[in-house]
Amino acid sequence: MTRWLRAHVNPTRRHFIKLSVGAGSAVGLGIGSTKLIAEKSVKPLRILILGGTGFTGPYQVRYALSRSHKVTTFNRGKTHPGELPNEVEQLIGDRNGQLDTLKDRQWDVVIDNPTTLPAWVRDAGQALKGNVERYVFISTISVYADTSKGIDETAPLAQYDGPDACNETMEAMRASGYKTYGPLKALSEKEAEKWFPGKTLIIRPGLIVGPGDETDRFTYWTVRIDRGGEVLAPGTPTDPVQFIDARDLAEWTIRMAEKRGTRIYNATGPAKTLVIGDMLGGIKTALSSNANFTWVTAEFLKQQNVQAWSDMPVWAGDETELARTNISRALAKGLTFRPLAETARDTLAWFKSQPQDRQSHLRAGLTPEREAEVLTAWHKQQR
């Protein structure tokens, strides 16, 4: 998706960062080597997952089943059909007006993974109103209006300035260069609270990574560091970074559903400040790589037209506050994180299991040729 965006819509770097941070909630299928611990919750729940076959959905499904919940998914049946466990009830439909299979059914919890358009929440609300006890909306930190300042859940949200948000379409959003992505997500949150007042839990993830991430944002670093040699590292080793393993996000979402949680929570990680030097070094150690990092300044990267986030994934460039999103509210509610080394090893193992043509085209980061060009130019300047 990142390369598609650069090639076709050419958004600004700032907008690209805000968009990409949240995009992972709806992209790609990947089931990694996550370890599920069978654990019965206080009460088995009937859980409906809208989506369920994308990136985080399969992890939600498997974790919920491991905790003795009954799981139903609702989707078009076109993305990775037949790959969910047999215990899952699969309902076929479409968020664009084909929701009949949801009517006259009752669930304890609904988890809405793929929604971007407010009309999708409105239609789901009409179909499900009165038949669910809790509505969990997976949003994004892209809803915030200003990421140049410290962000917590009370920060102002992006404003939609179009004629009618409920008439927006995915096609129109793409045509706009995804400029309406954050504002429409913010309005979708409001729509959820409108239809499920006092029953809505809103989770705003940051960058979602791990096995199954088809955008290759974190994956780029595992592949590049595993290859070894001189590695171009952006900015300074002390630049902050944030991300969350899809499995940690999925599992915490299920636990919050079990607790009948409401309110709004930022959900990224890790628990303590992580800097890119430690991230890259941690990946190197986890993969037993011989990589050597050459740190190239942000100013020089700009001169070379090397973009933060897309060409240098995870790194936010001068948008450092984006990588300092406040997650204290989620931590207080039990959000936990697996070790960086586990995420790195599992992500690389997943990527290496893909077909060769997929492995030959990373969807984020610099190509080997482009990286070599930038490093050569950097060393020439340092003489």
Using the CA coordinates, give the radius of gyration.
20 Å
Mean pLDDT: 89
Shape verdict: globular
Query: First CA to last CA: what distance?
Result: 38 Å
Question: What is the level-2 CATH architecture name?
Answer: 3-Layer(aba) Sandwich
How does this model look, in words?
The protein is an alpha/beta fold and 383 residues long. It has a single domain, classed as 3-Layer(aba) Sandwich (Rossmann fold), CATH 3.40.50.720. The chain contains 14 helices and 13 strands. Helix 7 crosses helix 9 (276-287). The radius of gyration is 20 Å and the shape is globular. The two termini are 38 Å apart.
Task: Give a quick rundown of the structure.
With 383 residues, this protein is an alpha/beta fold. 36% of the residues lie in helices and 15% in strands.
Keywords:
383 residues; alpha/beta; Rossmann fold; seven-stranded parallel beta sheet; two-stranded parallel ribbon; 15% strand; globular
Helices and strands in order, then pairings?
Blueprint: H1 2-8, H2 13-23, E1 46-50, H3 57-66, E2 70-75, E3 89-92, E4 107-112, H4 118-128, E5 132-138, H5 170-175, H6 181-195, E6 200-205, E7 208-209, H7 219-227, E8 230-234, E9 240-241, E10 244-245, H8 246-258, E11 263-267, E12 274-275, H9 276-287, E13 292-296, H10 298-303, H11 328-332, H12 340-352, H13 356-359, H14 368-382
Parallel strand pairs: 1-2, 1-4, 2-3, 4-5, 5-6, 6-11, 7-10, 8-13
Antiparallel strand pairs: 9-12
Helix pairs in contact: 3-8, 4-6, 7-9, 7-12, 9-12
